[in-house]
Amino acid sequence: MASSKISIYPSSSSSTSNSKPPPGWLEYILVNYRWVIVIFFLLPASFLYDIYYYTRSWVVFRISSAPHNHDKKVANVQRQVRTWDGVAPMCTARPGWQTISFREGAYKKTCHKVAINLVDVLRIDTKTQTVWCEPLVTMGQLTHTLVELGWTIPVVPEMDDLTVGGLVMGTGIETSSHKHGLFQHICLSYELVLADGSLVTCSKDENPDLFYSVPWSYGTLGFLTAVEMKIVAAQRQCVCVCVCVCVNRFVKVEYKPCNSLENLVSTFRAETWKAEGNQFVEGLLYSLQSGVVMTANMCNTAEIGKINEIGRWYKPWFFTHVENYLARGECGVEYIPLRDYYHRHTRSIFWEIQDIIPFGNNVAFRYLLGWLVPPKVSLLKLTQGQAMKELYEKNHFIQDMLVPLDSMKEALEVFHKEVKIYPIWLCPFKVEANPGMLRPVGGREALYVDIGTYGTPGVNNYHPEETTRRIEAFVRKVKGFQMMYADSYMTLEEYREMFDHVLYDKLRKGMVCEKAFPQVYDKVNRKFRI
């Protein structure tokens, strides 16, 4: 999941036996009948919020008021920074429950909060093939705006509610990342308000040290106010279905079932390295010895009878749809509308929603209430009680570990031994040999794979801290990285071993950030999160 991923909750049926009884009737309902709260309260609230949010975004973009208002909003951020009293370090005023990560930063309670209301797409320039966005623009909002105009960004992390700012300051990944890199690698420039209240723009040519240090810094070098990104053309097709109808933009997806770990790893590598190149490569592992490798490419035509609008509310969850190819043991080809493909895991929040609404993939539920799914993660967080947090802590494991592609087989065996969670999400990506937090193996551009595990461990000896630390140690050993939206139990020394702090430390000192912002470790480590 990305910083691109999100965290939900353990199912009550699998977890309550290991926990103390909740202290009150409300806690009891929230734990044992979570689905009641979700269906009757959170789903309608999420739906109404989406209507408001997308309508507002559409109107603002159409009347082109965002660029003018942007200057005013940035000036307000600068004013707040310049009047900072210098006692406590600064952070954004955005409540912790609104973020996509399960945890809330404890630093929010003690830091000086700066309000940042930057939520708009500012400008699309098809001549230079760029888009300017404010940091709280979501992936759903951005793809809706761009695809409608025939454009897209090269890397679209799949969850609708992921924000541009979160993907820049943290990280983001998608099945096109083996071609284009992580989300940071499609960014051309950043606009930030620094500790002294000044407004700067940085790029590879202007303030390059700052440009390369912003990703993975989690807001500890300045406040992000705008991002310039590359855009690419999204191809348009017309398909005849009885009559000639323009159906939209499509992705041709090919499914390749694999019935051994060796076969899956070799197929995954071959498709990633393929000479002519697949635009998208993805894998879903359903057991250590079985999975499906998917490749996809935007195309100019779609075969009648093979179009699958997987984003429709009544469609089965994508991961269950893919598993059918494995069950049948045969390859397959279908055409998915581009935006449906980008957000194929959104409705089921990968596979986490099955622990919240166990019957959510039932055909009757999908047809009657599927149009309300998914609930907002922020609302799920806001309505959880202490009992839910404790259940989650003891019985749930969510991690994205980024390991060199050559270490993929060994890494999957480690995950099987330590947590035995399936499905596992597999996504290849490249790490460029640029300055900054990420050091690719050998100091040269290298291919990695994101191993995403989200769910209840299937082993008897699972312990949140001890198990995670063993996996973190393995990832450090193979020169990999951990996505820091998830729980990390590394010491400061281990964290600095995994991530290159040379340029980051230089900038923190040179821009007088020590008192103005927390250190990145003090924002991402488990002991600083609640």
From TrEMBL:
The entry's keywords: Membrane, Oxidoreductase, Peroxisome, Transmembrane, Transmembrane helix
Compositional bias annotation for Low complexity: 1-19
The protein's Enzyme Commission number: 1.3.1.72
Domain of life of the native organism: Eukaryota
GO biological process, alphabetically ordered: steroid metabolic process
InterPro entries recorded: Diminuto-like, FAD-bd_PCMH, FAD-bd_PCMH-like_sf, FAD-bd_PCMH_sub2, Oxid_FAD_bind_N
UniProt membrane topology term: Single-pass membrane protein
Ranges for domain FAD-binding PCMH-type: 51-234
Statement: the UniProt record of this protein carries the keyword Transmembrane: yes
Protein name: Delta(24)-sterol reductase
Catalytic activities: 5alpha-cholest-8-en-3beta-ol + NADP(+) = zymosterol + NADPH + H(+); lanosterol + NADPH + H(+) = 24,25-dihydrolanosterol + NADP(+)
UniProt keyword Transmembrane helix present: yes
TM ranges: 33-54
Localization: Membrane; Peroxisome
Region Disordered: start-end pairs: 1-21
Gene: DHCR24_2
Pfam families: FAD_binding_4
Cellular-component GO terms for this entry: membrane; peroxisome
Single GO MF annotation: Delta24-sterol reductase activity
